Structures
1.
Amino acid sequence: MTSRPDNLVIAVDGPAASGKGTVAKALSRHYGLPHMDTGMLYRSVALSLWRFGGDAGNPFEAVRAVDEIGNIDPDDEELRSETVGELASRVSAYPAVRKALLARQQAFAAQPGGAVLDGRDIGTVIAPDAHAKLFVTASAQVRAERRHKEITGRGVDAHFEEVLADIRARDERDAGRAAAPLVPAQDADQLDTSELGVDDAIAAAIDLVEAALVRRS
Ligand code: DC
């Protein structure tokens, strides 16, 4: 293994269902680093807003929901639902919501010993000095197939065409928003997982991190 910095920070970004969460968790295990799924923060805001009947069209109510995320159980099944994911994509477009969630993500990235974070703006905004940055992609068709399989695997009914349309709508919103849009950092390495199984995607991700560490040394 390449010699690594004491505070190794790895940023993993990408669109919905690209495999970035799987890659980030595997990197966290491989390098023995704590992992933060930052999408869960936005999902927690969305769920708390929804539970308390808040209006997702109102940025002030969305920001108020940030204060309530401590009351959301991280194991709450609803957090992973499509409804909450869609709502998370809407509230995450508000600059004030992003700002309210910034410090905890930056503190996580800056902890002694390093960290792995995954999301949409880790390499661009949260940890621009990360030692390695991966931008994980896959075609919309493949991502919709994965998401469809995951939803139906949970015993929930879903139509493939609707899942695909949702993925496309989410891509457009996440990439088209003015505040911290989903774009690869200039110095990110792209990893297309369309044709890769889980093990190959993880092996490719480790190779990219190792190569990034060599480049920096
Ligand atoms: O990765 P995910 O599907 O759990 O994320 C849910 C939504 O949260 C996503 O559509 C956009 C938003 N998000 C974001 O804007 N910035 C992040 N760093 C992570 C997620």
Note: The chain has a mean pLDDT of 94.
2.
Amino acid sequence: MKIAILTLFPLAFENVFSESIIKKAQDKKLLKITLVDIRNFAHDKHQKVDDKPYGGGKGMLLKVDVLVEAIESIKEKPYIILLSPSGKTFNQKKALGLSQKKSLAIICGHYEGIDSRIEEFVDEVISIGDFVLTGGEIAAMIIVDSVARLIPGVIHPESLETESFSPKYAKEKSGGFRLEHPQYTRPENFRGHKVPKILLSGNHQKIDQWQKKESVKKTRKTRPELLKN
Ligand code: ADE
């Protein structure tokens, strides 16, 4: 999969994308990330990428002409995402859908916003949650991270099956979206906090039932709205 990120701050991505699973995905050639510096598409020698809003108002807006030319510089025809707090909320289902695309372009907004005509040039506007960031860069990192791990070959499929929000886990274990059950490793007793006995029993059927029950219990406690759907 190819992902192009259109940003005014390409350097912000370097460390995040050169570590751990995202790095491995790129090393294995399952993922190619390109950082497109929006400023390279400015029309004047001052590299101006923003301007005052028509009708007045505070702050500056990213210019639509500059952004569209940056999009058009991407060779493969990508599925284009604009990041904005006013977009549709991102979730695991959306991550799965995006992981099946061949080529993505992600536009990071900045300043007070972007000329609204940009929406006519994108496929989808996405928000990562009901809060406002200073720009789209961190949102883009979150989307790339959650999408990259779902590309076939990046992570062992068994790890994906049992995690929170996994459609397969939901179907087999609990009949709906649930949070993942608690897990433990050694030591068996840490300062009096013991690993549940059932997990030491070796009875896989019983362990499976326990995990299902704990998953529902945890969901009821922290995300009860998931059980209503
Ligand atoms: N840019 C600023 N806030 C954002 C958000 N919540 N999601 C995506 N992009 C953003």
Note: Residues 83-85, 109, 127-129, 131-133, 136, 139 surround adenine (CB under 6 Å).
3.
Amino acid sequence: MTAVLPQPRSKSPLERVASPRRYLMCRPEHFDVSYAINPWMDVARGVDRELALRQWDALRRTYLDLGHQVDVITPEPGLPDMVFAANGGLVIEGRALGARFTHAERRAEGPAYLTWLARAGLKDVAEPVHVNEGEGDFLVVGDLVLAGTGFRTDPGAHTEVQELFGIPVISLQLVDPHFYHLDTALAVLDDSTVAYYPEAFSRGSRAVLQRLFPDAVLATEADAVVLGLNAVSDGRHVVLPSAALGLAVQLRERGYEPVGVDLGELLKAGGSVKCCTLEIRA
Ligand code: ARG
């Protein structure tokens, strides 16, 4: 006879709780790599737009299947990077700050997203003063905003966000051009946990992250270079690039449910899951 032994408590996985989210996305109808503003972009390489559309549709479907709401903004011709909705603004507690892009090639996306935000039924929508690339460089972790700088977002925008939302902003210095936006180097897993690639940050910023998040998931170079940290979590399910195999294992060990998706075509522009997703926080 086999005795049924009680499972040791430490072996039972942590129960992570998902909360329903509202996302904004932009279908890559005009997606292309026709200029190069980050090291991932090679104008000679060519993109398969049909494939990009299919991959994007699968990401949207993934969110819907997880029970999230997905709104879409109309893509505009001549704005091949508009698919990267994360850069379109920052929305916290029903209030939005619009984006102001670093590069001329993307500048017209600012007003396009601002117009959408102004009609989204939010309490307040502010026009940006300083250069900021939205949730590419601003990530909300519980009652904090982590803010990247070094390649795109001006540090002045960090103060602007703190003043506008009244939420403490922690400035982080990015040092590797492959990880030019904060959301390429750090993923928010829930209100108190992040995953990040330490080498993408300056020494001081690494120390800050270590102090704030001693239990953070540390990503390997192999997972970082497939933009594995460009992930979107609902507190339980972490939607991430399927090539980030090691990170998926680490997340599972922590009780999260990794959901891999392939956005290989969009990676040619230096973007993946999170870049395609702007969270609209009520
Ligand atoms: N090609 C785009 C750029 O360089 C990619 C943006 C990716 N977005 C992001 N949130 N990291 O601006």
Note: Confidence is low (pLDDT under 50) at residues 8-12.
